[in-house]
Automatic annotation (TrEMBL):
Entries under SUPFAM superfamilies matching the protein: Periplasmic binding protein-like II, Winged helix' DNA-binding domain
Plastid in keyword set: no
Keywords from the UniProt entry: DNA-binding, Transcription, Transcription regulation
Domain HTH lysR-type positions: 3-59
Record-linked InterPro entries: ArgP, LTTR, LysR_HTH_N, LysR_subst-bd, WH-like_DNA-bd_sf, WH_DNA-bd_sf
Signal peptide: none
UniProt keyword Nucleotide-binding, yes or no: no
Highest taxon listed in the record's lineage: Bacteria
Family: Belongs to the LysR transcriptional regulatory family.
NCBIfam families in the record: argP, PRK03635.1, PRK13348.1
One Gene Ontology MF term: DNA binding
Protein's organism: Noviherbaspirillum saxi
Protein name from the UniProt record: ArgP/LysG family DNA-binding transcriptional regulator
Gene3D superfamilies named among the record's database cross-references: 3.40.190.290, Winged helix-like DNA-binding domain superfamily/Winged helix DNA-binding domain (1.10.10.10)
Amino acid sequence: MKLDIRQSEAVLAVIESGSFEQAAIVLHLTPSAVSQRVRALETTLGAPLVVRTRPCRATPAGQRLLQYLRRVQSLEQDLQAELADSEAAPLSVAIAVNADTLDSWLLPALAPFLLRERMLLDLSVDDQDHTYTLLEAGLALGCISTEALPMRGCNAEMLGKMRYRCMASPDFRAQWFAKGMTRAAVRQAPVIVFNRKDRLQADFLLKHYGLTDGAYPCHYVPASEAYMQAIALGLGWGMVPELQMGALQRQGALVDIAPQRPTDVALYWHSWKVQSPRMERLSKALTMAARKLLG
């Protein structure tokens, strides 16, 4: 069975844009024509590909198709440049990463490679325990995740471990933890949590103090700079990557309130076994840079 190019483009446009109307604008068609092409491919494959909600999303079969189409696009762009014996056109690569990786080491590590290879990043940011699902859904060609096992057709390479420490302002420590991080104290002291997917603080409190979710007060601050600022302002304590806290700690704005209890989070790079040459080189560059920084 051979996939129809126009029908495949229609499915890809609908899923990426989130609606038939937006896909029609991208493809210079009417929404009705886009819908006809999507339905034709669904009939050919014998399975629904798009859940017609707002925004539209891929079914499990649509996710598998999306994975395939994104990889084909990447391979085609590199092949065209190679056959034409010309400088490679910019290649956009969709990657899913966690916020702490993006805000600390990813861009400085990859910038020389991206400039040299003329690659464009299309980044999706999610919790490190959830980026894997974006790769699985076909929304990324690679991801940085805590998941160690690769899904079918992919490789998973360990990048290293990000070390987190429990940090607070000196005034906050004096107010809440003058006698240390006792169980009674951590039940009362506010904690800063990045978002409701963030399990770092919850797992720490469960492991060391036996406290379950809801047993302590929380702020939710879903932006890295604001998260650090909230801790420095004394609104609560939170877990901060060692790679990010250097300047604030040196200035005395943050102090380690549990120096004997760091938390190490292992990170893995997931990518497809079959991918374009430039994507292969990106995987190698990212892995090498991460291992130098993360250890």
